[in-house]
Amino acid sequence: MFGYYGKILVADLSTKETSILPIDERVASKFIGGSGYASRLLYDLIDPNADPFGPDNMLLFMTGPLTGTLAPSTGRHVVCGKSPITGLWGESHAGGHFGERIRASGFDGILIKGTSDTPVFLQVENGESEILPADHLWGMSTSETQETLKKNNHRMQVSCIGPAGENLVKFASIVNDERVAARCGLGAVMGSKKLKAITVNGSNKIPLASPDEFKELAHSSSKILGEAMSMLFDQGTNMYIDIGLMFNDIPIKYFQEIEFDDAALINGKSLTEILTGRSACYSCPIACGRKVSVAEYNLENIAGPEFQTVASFGTNLLISDLRKIVLMNHLCNQYGMDTISCGSTIAFATHLCDIGKADYGFN
């Protein structure tokens, strides 16, 4: 089956054993990769009554048939499971290079089941896997965890949780580099399973039906996409702040206001004042990621906030100091928390104080 290795790695944290689950070709032809295949598979595997923090919930890190190929913008992966926030379907996507390294390790996905009684991490490389102790990693920030695990192998990619996931914060995220699978609280599910991190690496090549023709098409489409998305390259995703405000698609003071006069202080153009570089996900010609430095907070060459984060901590909280938004984004990434849910929770708490329904000392 071209585009697939035909297997998902299964890691049972309760027994500390790993096994292989074959890809069902009939399902893959109808539910193509990523969240499509994940939703169909987990529909059969997860009991609807399972506790999101219990051993019967599962987490599936899944890729699609194009992930890890030369096709443009194909580095993303998805994490799926039962959300502790809603008790329903949870699906969270992330960019970076972790998805490509899953494929290079020889698998189409990684299924986590069961619960460990002590902290562990899963190591995957070239078709081999091992569940290892992670007591020395427990309590570390996401950057500390990644630096520790990558110390002797920088080609390796790491997806991990921070203290928020360990403490079951319901909007905890899963971080690789500074790309984040943030939505639905699946980082807390990792924490409930005592799974601190997954490392992936390898040198496997994805089987393609017509490699030469595919390579030619990938290069030509990458050039077209890069040229079409030049504004996104120039300003990053924060270019949407101005557009979103124009169409009332940005939250302002917990959706209580309709105008925000300081957009020019937090939009894509303003970010250039602290810009130190750009970053791109695997095989992406756009490079919308921003690297920034803020001397007053001792932050050097870190990931800049995406537009959702600027909206959540900026317009939503009526904060127009971009450097403070950068700091809040960084703290969330280090602790492993979803910036959208975090900012929205603070905005809601502030709103409750404003209308006299609570007294948290916010104003």
Features:
single chain, 363 residues, alpha+beta, Aldehyde Ferredoxin Oxidoreductase,  A, domain 1, Aldehyde Ferredoxin Oxidoreductase Protein, subunit A, domain 2, 2 domains, 6-stranded mixed sheet, 4-stranded mixed sheet, 15 strands
Compact description:
The chain is of the alpha+beta class and 363 residues long. It has 13 helices and 15 strands. Helix content is 32%, strand content 21%.
3D structure, described in words:
This protein has 363 residues and is of the alpha+beta class. It has two domains: 7-201, 4-Layer Sandwich (Aldehyde Ferredoxin Oxidoreductase,  A, domain 1); 229-354, Aldehyde Ferredoxin Oxidoreductase Protein, subunit A, domain 2, CATH 1.10.569.10. 32% of the residues lie in helices and 21% in strands. It contains 13 helices and 15 strands. It has helices spanning 25-30, 34-45, 98-104, 142-149, 163-166, 186-192, 211-228, 230-235, 240-246, 268-271, 307-313, 322-335, 339-354, and strands at 7-12, 17-22, 59-62, 77-82, 89-94, 109-113, 120-125, 128-133, 157-160, 174-176, 179-181, 195-201, 275-279, 289-294, 299-303. The strands form four sheets. Strands 2-1-6-3-4-5 form a six-stranded mixed beta sheet. A hairpin with a 4-residue loop joins strand 14 (289-294) and strand 15. Helix 11 (307-313) runs parallel beside helix 13. It is globular and about 55 Å long. The N and C termini lie far apart (58 Å). The model has no long low-confidence stretch (mean pLDDT 96).
